[in-house]
Description:
By secondary structure, this protein is of the alpha/beta class.
Amino acid sequence: xxxxxxxxxxxxxxxxxxxxxxxxxxxxxxxxxxxxxxxxxxxxxxxxxxxxxxxxxxxxxxxxxxxxxxxxxxxxxxxxxxxxxxxxxxxxxxxxxxxxxxxxxxxxxxxxxxxxxxxxxxxxxxxxxxxxxxxxxxxxxxxxxxxxxxxxxxxxxxxxxxxxxxxxxxxxxxxxxxxxxxxxxxxxxxxxxxxxxxxxxxxxxxxxxxxxxxxxxxxxxxxxxxxxxxxxxxxxxxxxxxxxxxxxxxxxxxxxxxxxxxxxxxxxxxxxxxxxxxxxxxxxxxxxxxxxxxxxxxxxxxxxxxxxxxxxxxxxxxxxxxxxxxxxxxxxxxxxxxxxxxxxxxxxxxxxxxxxxxxxxxxxxxxxxxxxxxxxxxxxxxxxxxxxxxxxxxxxxxxxxxxxxxxxxxxxxxxxxxx
Length: 419
């Protein structure tokens, strides 16, 4: 999919909620799209994951892509959307797709799932089926609160499920989805969204979903036209909706775009370098926050000097963000992060998925595994099958091994910075 890219700026939606007296994000448990707009449902509808639909007023540049996705989803039982990390797939799914359906005057109910760390996807499908049955009964009885008979299931970050799930678990989930799609009493569509490097993993469930790859759509990185729209158009929309207007310095967009460009081999900004949505949102959020505090009489302007001098550019903002996040962690968790970070992110910025055992640290016969359940320590010489966890008995060894990895990594980074 080519064309103008987009960015939905949550800063404007958040600021608007503050003006309107909202205490926090307007996250809802379900979303219904009809020709009259996007409706929010109550939290009692637990079968469906929430959307931040108020961002739609500040979502620009990707209307054509969203419409293409909507047409494909409606035309087929299953559609696959893929793209590199950071292209903005989730923004399109959260905001662009519902708005495109509304523009097409399509009534639909959207259920979205993007967390796969718990093996409860079959329960999720079961609950969805019950909700669909409930909606069908309401439609048959003619009740006004009926939600229609078109359901769209959006499975975001699906490569993570495919990586961690066993073959049986993946096939069972695929079978459950196939049964949903095959229903004759309601119209059910499934949209799989995943990073490009995980596309091949869909082969694991094609035996259960043979038509899975008949419709595949690629979403590409932000281009400079889209970035400019993402910077300027939400501000224009804000000014049209409020008496207090906010201006941009004339060179603000060009300066920011130049700093956001991907670098070439010599460290220079590439003229057509990809620009990641996450960096753009982070930078604009930090500039907005700084200007609000600095302009005590009221925010009137986003200034280039704030980006280049006060916040030390895109690089300074990114470093400050990392320092802030790590600063919230305990020393032990900071050491854990330093141990894992070079295994999880490639030099080019790609994300790598590992099982916890793949990240084990070995010193002599000792093997240390760090994960969500806490550290695990094994002595492979005495216990080659790893049946006895020694972490609680030998905490000093756990600390020494973790510190050794952290020190080695920090020394490596210091050497690279000197070079």
